[in-house]
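For the sake of clarity, the format in which proteins appear in this thesis is described at this point. The record quoted next illustrates the convention:

___
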Amino acid sequence: MAFKIIASQCTQCGACEFECPSSAIKFKGEIYVIDPKKCTECKEAFDTQQCASVCPVPGTCIPA
C-alpha cells in the first residue's frame, strides 16, 4: 500500500516532497502527488511516515 495526499487539504508548502526518503512525492500541475509505485510508507527507514509527520495540516497525507 502507499500513501496519498488529499489535494483539497494540501497547502502546497512542499515540506513533504523534501522529506520523502523514496522521492515518491512530486508537484504536478497545481498539486502534490505521491507515486504509489515509489512510496514505501517509510517502513524500512523510519517509524512514522515522513510526509505525514511534516505536513502542517493533519490528515492530509493518508494511507491510500
